């Protein structure tokens, strides 16, 4: 390994010069040499350049370096590259393999990719299972997107009531990066499919209230149908959740002769409708617990703290620290730009290779701003917007761990759009 060329490649990667980075990472190693880090970052650079087939090859080379590890992240990135290159079936295999890596810190990313690939192949049942796994994964800081996609699957499977619950839960968990308008539009479609036309009109109005979101053709048709039905007949069942007499809600055309799909046949659920509702509620509580937003947990903690008079302890449990996450992040980026030692801002439990990868991921002369944060007592996951020197922007997911009263960075990964992202 040519360490001098490798350092040049890292610098090019950090400054956003991905064309140079891709060439330098390739030049830094002998063709027969195993170098997981170099091939991993080469693959990321090629993804940014839209060279998806070459990125697949780079990730494959990185996967051959058993000493490097990171199979989950590499396979997830490879799956995204395969999706972007049009090889959806191979992408399914890559994403599926990524979910089997027990050491993968963020498996929800693999489940999201798997859901997208299966959905593109028309396999809505298995896609729904994948989205459900992504939504309940405790490492997922923003489950709303997965829940909305699960709702899409339910609509496609002609299970509108289940779709309604998925969309409504997605709205409950929607954060700054989620498009609540699109989720409301999906909810409107589900309400129409369930013959709940008043609720549908309300949902569509919420989606279009600010004049920004544009309904799809199917959504416009559903919206018009809801409005026309309400205008034409006051006897039509609207917001009660009931269905027109004699119509099977899962087979409105009456062609199947039974419920479709039958939960016992699809493998999607093996529960009764009542049990599904109960389980959905239970899993919602689990998701909230993982995201440190469970109301009961908050109340219990608050009562204990009030009894103890521990105002400082309360702040500690809510993620406050000295230095704060933003302070540590800003100083880390500045140290990387200045060429100074970054160890004091990184988690003490990281080894040297992990620290090197984090340092190599930091663009020079860039400004990092935390946009969203899932803060806990000992760990925090933050969504970070990074403004590059050249004026572009990138989104990172940064992990922090508690060290003393303050925080230290434990991980940094790029968080691009699904079609072009790489970790």
What would you say this structure looks like, in words?
With 423 residues, this protein is α+β, with helices and mostly antiparallel strands. The chain has helices at 3-14, 18-27, 36-48, 52-63, 71-85, 88-99, 107-120, 124-136, 144-156, 160-173, 180-193, 197-208, 217-232, 263-266, 273-290, 295-308, 311-317, 325-338, 352-360; strands at 367-375, 379-387, 393-403, 406-414. It has 19 helices and four strands. Strand 1 and strand 2 (379-387) form a beta hairpin. Helix 12 (197-208) crosses helix 13. This is Tetratricopeptide repeat protein. Keywords: Membrane, Transmembrane, Transmembrane helix. The chain crosses the membrane at residues 297-316. InterPro entries: TPR-like_helical_dom_sf, TPR_rpt.
Task: Set out the fold topology.
Layout: H1 3-14, H2 18-27, H3 36-48, H4 52-63, H5 71-85, H6 88-99, H7 107-120, H8 124-136, H9 144-156, H10 160-173, H11 180-193, H12 197-208, H13 217-232, H14 263-266, H15 273-290, H16 295-308, H17 311-317, H18 325-338, H19 352-360, E1 367-375, E2 379-387, E3 393-403, E4 406-414
Antiparallel strand pairs: 1-2, 2-3, 3-4
Helix pairs in contact: 1-2, 2-3, 3-4, 4-5, 5-6, 5-7, 6-7, 7-8, 8-9, 9-10, 9-11, 10-11, 11-12, 11-13, 12-13
